[in-house]
Amino acid sequence: MTSGVILPSLVPSRTSGVAPLAVHFDATATTSATVGIDTFRQVTYAFNFGDDRGQSWAVSGKPKNSEVGGPIAAHVFDLPGTYTVTLQATDPSGAVAQTSVTITVQDPAAFYSGTKTVCVSTTTDFSGCPTGATQQNSLPTGTGWNGKRVLLKRGQDFTTLGSISIQDGNSSVQVGAFGSGAKPIVHSVGVGDGRPNTASFANDVSIIDLATRGKMAQGIGHRVLFYRNDLTNPRDSSSGFYFGDEYFTYRDPYRFVPSSSFYNARELFYVENTVVGNTSTDYNAFGFGARMAWLGNDFSTTKWHNLRIIRTYKSVLAHNRLRGISSTGGYHSLKLHAGGLTAYADNSLTSGTTWASRYIVTSSNEFGSATDNNTWTIALCPQNDQSAEGLEDVVAENNRFIRGSQTSVDLTVTGRRITYRGNTNASQSASVGLNGHGAALPTDWKSPYFSQ
């Protein structure tokens, strides 16, 4: 191996915004002059977010201010300020280099000053509402969310007011809570999940500190954060979290917006949410999207798969607890597959629905439980032996598997350039199955695999 220069690339999804600000970081364009290096899997990436407040993830115990491993990471900046995010890249030859970017986080009290903040209470109790905010007993409708921070009174039940529905024409929206007490209870939440009237799809939306038995859906749009929400026994039969939508692009007979205007949902952040599901709800989370971050969530019990991602691109899943207790035992804590074998594009018509899942990091998660009744704990592979669905450039590292009575394989992987390393089952290495559900795949989509 000939040593050379490493040139790290650090691309943030955005460099400014309002707290809490979720940012996706992409280092996949890093290059190395060391001959023969695959920079996705063989370079060690150490992200420091410049936001050290002594906080750690509940599941992994690792600090929230850093991420070490693969080249995809994400962070939520809770407080206003200016942050220097640093990436150090190290290749196997010992070549080391750093680069950094600056993230500017604005104060929501200033950004949403005066009547840009709306406090909603079902009574006359507006204690804790910011000074100068609008006070009302109803939720906004239509484009009434646009540019607003809408705060619901803690300890109150808002289900009779209907769904929180944030559709096209709305951007720079926050929905959260004010006052003290339990999280506000809402009927359901929908962001860009209805037929759009314009191509100004909902974007830059944060849903924070709410509780519901309804679905939280993200359809069309980008830069959407679901943060610290609680979903308990979702009443919707399909899923608790639903993300991505293709109906309005391809099949809607009453479409107002040309199909060419639609894009794949992207920059989706699911951080520190809980879902306590049941065996009547199909999934605790289901869908597709690009540049997603699933961080610190806790999902348990479902009819089928706990978290099912049907296709994704440049995404990270880290520090989650996914317990795959299902209705029959034939499902998984995490099921990640693809639409087919073609390349991803942001534009929906360009990409179609058959794109392969590529550039994925799954790290520092806890999968399964002692009461888990499934045979494969997680499956990073096609959904079945009849579907030619490609996964490539995937790293599964430092995950902890807890076996149930029916567990036969901890981790099943099928694809090309798949790396698994540092995964454990109790005090031993996790068991890995190769080429599961790979019967329909071409030979060149079933290797190589790397165990490091």
Provide structural commentary.
Among the domains are: 6-106, Immunoglobulins (Immunoglobulin-like), CATH 2.60.40; 277-452. The protein is 3% helix and 42% strand. The strands form 5 sheets. The chain has a 22-stranded parallel β-sheet that branches. Strands 16-19-22-25-28-30-33-36-39-40 form a 10-stranded mixed β-sheet, with no helix packed on it.
> Strand percentage, roughly?
35-45%
Class from helix and strand fractions: mainly beta
Distance between the termini: 17 Å
Mean pLDDT over all positions: 95
| CA gyration radius, whole angstroms | 22 Å
Seen as an oligomer or otherwise, the chain set is: single chain
Question: How many strands, what sense, and barrel or not for the largest sheet?
Answer: 22 strands, parallel
Any low-confidence stretches, pLDDT <50, length ≥5? none
What is the helix content?
A: under 10%
The backbone outline, from C-alpha atoms, is: globular
Please work out how many helical segments DSSP would assign.
3
Extended strand count: 42
Describe this structure in a few short sentences.
The chain is built from three helices and 42 strands. It has 452 residues and is mainly β.
Describe this protein with a few key phrases:
3% helix; 10-stranded mixed beta sheet; globular; Immunoglobulin-like; mainly beta; 452 residues
Describe how the helices and strands are arranged:
Layout (H helix, E strand, L loop, with lengths): L5 E2 L3 E2 L3 E3 L2 E6 L4 E2 L11 E5 L17 E4 L2 E6 L3 E10 L5 E11 L1 H4 L5 E4 L13 E3 L12 E5 L10 E3 L4 E8 L6 E2 L2 E3 L11 E6 L2 E2 L3 E3 L3 E6 L2 E3 L6 E5 L3 H4 L15 E6 L2 E3 L6 E8 L2 E3 L2 E3 L6 E12 L2 E3 L10 E3 L11 H4 L5 E7 L2 E2 L8 E5 L10 E7 L2 E2 L7 E5 L2 E6 L2 E2 L2 E2 L2 E3 L14 E3 L1
